[in-house]
Amino acid sequence: MAASVRDADWAESGPGPVEGWPPGLRQTLDNLLSQPLPMALLWGENLLYFHNDAYAERLALQHLAFGRPLLENSSGFPGQSAINQVLAGRSVVEDVPRSVLTNRGDPDCVMVLSPIPDEQGDVRGVLLALATRSGEGLLNARPQSGDGYRALFNALDDGFCVAEVLFDADKRPSDVHFMEVNAAFERLTGLGDAAGRTMRALAPGHDEHWHDICGRVALSGRPERFENPDAAPARPYDAYAFPVGGPRQNRVAILLRDIMPRLLAEAALHANERRKTFLLELSDALQPLADPQDIMASAGALLGAHLRVDRCGYGEVDAAGDHFTVVRDWTNGGTASARGTYRIGDFGPELSAEQRAGRKLVIEDALADPRVQGVESAYMAAGGLRSTLAVPLMKKGRWIASFFVQQASPRTWTAEEEALLWEVAERTWAAVEKAHVEWALRESEKRLRIVVSELQHRVRNILTVVRSVFARTFDRRGDQEEMADHFKGRLDALARSQIVVTQTAAGTADLENLIRDELMSVGAHDGPQVRIEGPDVQLNSKAAESLGLAVHELTTNAVKYGALRATGASLDIFWTVDLDQGGQQILTLCWAEQGVPAVSVNPGHEGFGRELIEEALPYRLGAETKLEFRGGGIRCSIVMPLDMAPNRELKEPVDER
Asked: What helix, strand, coil percent values describe the chain, rounded to 5?
């Protein structure tokens, strides 16, 4: 076969010129062709087929297919069904049908198919080796070139050995003598220089399951598969043991496959499933909660139990960035809570620097962490657990809070735990933000309902007041134009009081502004003729409406007949606020005119203003009023509680005609 490779025109077919073949193909093929061990090779994407002379002698195959793609040789090709498994990185042992053997009287034969990696570790080929149960092939073929055979044998990515099982006098397996092993076998089992030595000599404390399994295979002639997932300090493997040699030789061959990648993938899959299940439980737990503190407490309890930590909590940073307050935390029952406020500067610049920069804080052992040295007292005051993992919450580039987990003993935090903490923190903060938004929406709706209710009440109240003012203005005979002017003035007074009330969020009116606005409407203001003095007083809308009308009536009278008309007259408006015996605030408002030359001491006509002051204010505001027509001008006093007047409307007029 070596001559066939040397003389063939590979430039026109197959893999191309020999000079361009990959080093892995040339090295493997050189070793394969020079060995008496029956072997074949499939290489590359098209699975180009090569075999040595020993392989061709044992199997009834046509040499014309040499170097051609497997698809051209697929008819009756032994091991074809297992090739996809081998290309995926798994070694396979297959029985060889007698129908493909050159001499069908030969002993039973098995084929070992192993992946061949390239320089980058990717599977590029499949190595096929024949072994008979009578001891030929892998067991007792001795190559002409030992170095080449050993290189080929060690090129197998999977472990392989041929061993003799030793039995005691009671036919119980007592030891295993290794006759042939490759490098992968030693790597997977951790048994160095195993060839020619026994298991007990190599590893006296090795698990007895090896002896038992090999003994059963040697005696029964039936292959067995087993796993050793905890093969420390070596690597976990999957093993396939099958008998070789004669019935009394007690020999077995064992093929080992590295299952570390599979176990890691299974562990990652299991961890991912646990993570998904936990996050689903977290979402279900947070979904019905509306209070931010309840959300934090629930998230902390779930995460703390899931990670099996001693403490899990949430803390906020004040606006100045100087203090950190642990608002809520969960503990395992044996650890104290860390709730409280702490000065960030006490922990030193390094511990807070990571959080301020938006990065995680990892402390695996505070007693060995140089960042904690010198600030141990602050660290102990904050709970003093030895390991911490914390992730920050940033808003507009500023550190505003942290979510953390802690352990009383040293702990190495894994990348998976860190990722989960970030995920829980983000989900929890999203739930808290949602709760804040929903709370603000509820409060806004509540305020809107209050405003609408207040507006409805105010509109009804204003309409009632307007009807009452209209009725009292036009309930007597008189000049229609004059009565219209009175009515318009009173509506303007009501409008001014409403404007003052609606200028504040609380719906209140400042008493001084109410008085000044009314005086300004007739061109009057404080000065030599008018003096206004009193403390700050806020009136509710009902009091503002009624007092606004009363001040309007007094102002109108002063303009027509009193101090705002007469030369040399003066007007004093002053008020005080005192507490009665029950601690209630009492407003005393006085209107005093002086220097008015002619005022009827006892007017015969009771107008709207007098009725409003003497009847409506006591009824509506619980006020005590006194209206005096003195020589020199009117004096009016109004004494009323400030907290809340009786909720009564102005009386509708009674038609006594």
From this structure: 40, 25, 35
Lookup result for tokens 């408002």: 589
Tens-place pLDDT, residues 12-61: 666 677 777 877 777 778 777 766 667 888 888 888 888 888 788 877 76
Question: Identity (one letter) of the amino acid at 186?
Answer: E
- Alpha-carbon distance of 63 to 51, in angstroms, equals 9
Residue 540 contacts residue 644 (beta carbons within 8 Å): yes
- Nearest one of 501, 584, 480, 606 to 546, comparing CA atoms: 501
**Does 337 reside within a domain?**
yes
The reply to whether 427 and 287 lie within a common domain is: yes
- The H or E element spanning position 591 is strand 585-594
What are the beta bridge partners of residue 94? Answer: 111
* Cα end-to-end span (Å), the chain: 139
At 424, which amino acid appears? V
Can you read off the two tokens belonging to residue 197?
Answer: 């030595």
Q: Tens digits of per-residue pLDDT, 440-454?
A: 888 888 888 877 776
Domain around 375 = 267-438
The tally of domains found in the chain comes to 3
Is residue 462 one of the residues assigned to a domain? no
CATH number of the domain to which 279 belongs: 3.30.450.40
Cα–Cα distance between 236 and 189 in angstroms, integer?
8
**Could you tell me if 255 and 321 lie in one domain?**
no
What tokens appear for 353 in the block?
Answer: 């620097």
Of 455 and 647, the structure prediction assigns the larger pLDDT to 455
Same structural domain, 373 and 491:
no
Whole-Å CA distances, 361 to 371, 381, 388, 463: 11, 18, 7, 66
pLDDT score of 334: 87
How much is the pLDDT for 656?
38
pLDDT of residue 7: 63
Q: Check which CATH number belongs to the domain holding 14 and give it.
A: 3.30.450.20
How far is the C-alpha of 655 from the C-alpha of 653, rounded, in Å? Answer: 6
Residue where one domain finishes, among candidates 213, 228, 261: 261
Last residue of a domain, one of 206, 236, 261: 261
CB-side neighbour CA atoms (13 Å) of 601: 2
Rounded CA separation 653/657 (Å): 11
Lowest mean pLDDT among 191-200, 226-235, 394-403: 226-235
pTM of the model: 0.50
